[in-house]
Task: inverse folding
């Protein structure tokens, strides 16, 4: 079958024909319809990340159709549309989490990556049963759009871990990115009265703000108070995050779901006096994928403004370059076998 591979001695993705994967106990085989290609994937073949042993098939969130299951009692049925979540972890508090076909966040993740090395950038994906969420029949969103679902669920997890309450004024830092724009849509869906968009790409922020009157692009000197901050920013600019934390009302919360690489110098005295909370939130529990799908099915989330450019797996190098150059806001890149 056609697949994208990460191979020894090559710092680029390689399209290859490979054997159809086996179906071990507890697994489900899915025919891939579309897989999400985030821009950070350009770093995956470099060799600097903890990945499965090479060669392996990379991959991220995807949408597909069930072909077969190893367990006859599996609730998933042949022909059923499913969302595929690559996140994997053990049952306890040990830091052993990571992503199938991608990377681990701690050395202990290596045992999961060894068992499930191959991801969704192929005609078929075989993964553990718990990684698949049925897509309701009334969700008509095209697979190339719906494969972004993990970014919406990551935002929803951040709001829930921060104990978000409807009626809040929310600020989204990094709102022009894939995660930040997804977070803005989630904030509206769960009852934010106003969502203030903070980010570097003003033109993208304006496109997002045009979706709803409750969305607004912040001015650089805005210091109005907010109840909740979802920080989706990446890179080394922690100053914006610190400034937002100092705008929190009493009992307000800032939740970090992005990828800041710079340490933040918080005013801990102010946080203490206002009983503010600082929360970290990584990815999401598998069950939240169903919650996002329910919001889509109910019409609470409208994905019609979102766009995707589609590439075949044998176009992976062009697709990767396109994702790096253009992903963000309402736009992303998807792979189709």
Result:
């Amino acid at each position: 079958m056609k697949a994208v591979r990460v191979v020894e001695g090559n710092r680029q993705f390689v399209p290859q024909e490979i054997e159809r994967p086996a179906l071990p106990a507890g697994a489900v085989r899915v025919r891939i319809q579309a897989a999400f290609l985030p821009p950070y994937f350009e770093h995956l073949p470099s060799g600097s990340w903890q990945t499965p042993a090479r060669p392996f098939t990379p991959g991220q969130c995807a949408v597909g159709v069930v072909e077969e299951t190893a367990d006859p009692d599996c609730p998933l049925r042949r022909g059923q549309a499913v969302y595929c979540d690559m996140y994997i972890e053990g049952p306890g508090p040990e830091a052993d989490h990571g992503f199938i076909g991608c990377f681990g966040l701690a050395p202990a993740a290596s045992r999961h990556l060894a068992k499930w090395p191959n991801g969704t950038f192929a005609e078929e994906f075989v993964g553990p049963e718990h990684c698949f969420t049925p897509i309701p029949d009334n969700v008509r969103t095209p697979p190339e759009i719906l494969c972004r679902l993990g970014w919406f669920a990551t935002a929803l997890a951040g709001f829930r871990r921060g104990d978000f309450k409807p009626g809040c004024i929310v600020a989204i830092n990094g709102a022009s990115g894939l995660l930040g724009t997804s977070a803005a849509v989630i904030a509206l869906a769960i009852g934010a009265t106003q969502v203030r968009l903070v980010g570097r790409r003003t033109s993208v922020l304006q496109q997002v703000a045009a979706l709803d009157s409750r969305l607004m692009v912040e001015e650089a000197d805005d210091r109005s108070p907010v109840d909740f901050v979802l920080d989706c920013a990446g890179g080394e600019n922690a100053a914006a995050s610190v400034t937002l934390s100092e705008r929190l009302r009493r009992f307000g919360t800032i939740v970090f779901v992005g990828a800041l690489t710079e340490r933040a110098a918080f005013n801990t005295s102010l946080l203490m006096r206002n009983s503010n909370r600082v929360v970290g939130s990584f990815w999401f529990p598998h069950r939240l994928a169903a919650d996002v799908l329910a919001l889509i099915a109910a019409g609470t989330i409208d994905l019609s403004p979102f766009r995707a450019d589609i590439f075949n797996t044998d176009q992976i190098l062009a697709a990767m370059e396109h994702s790096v150059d253009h992903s963000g806001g309402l736009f992303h890149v998807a792979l189709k076998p």
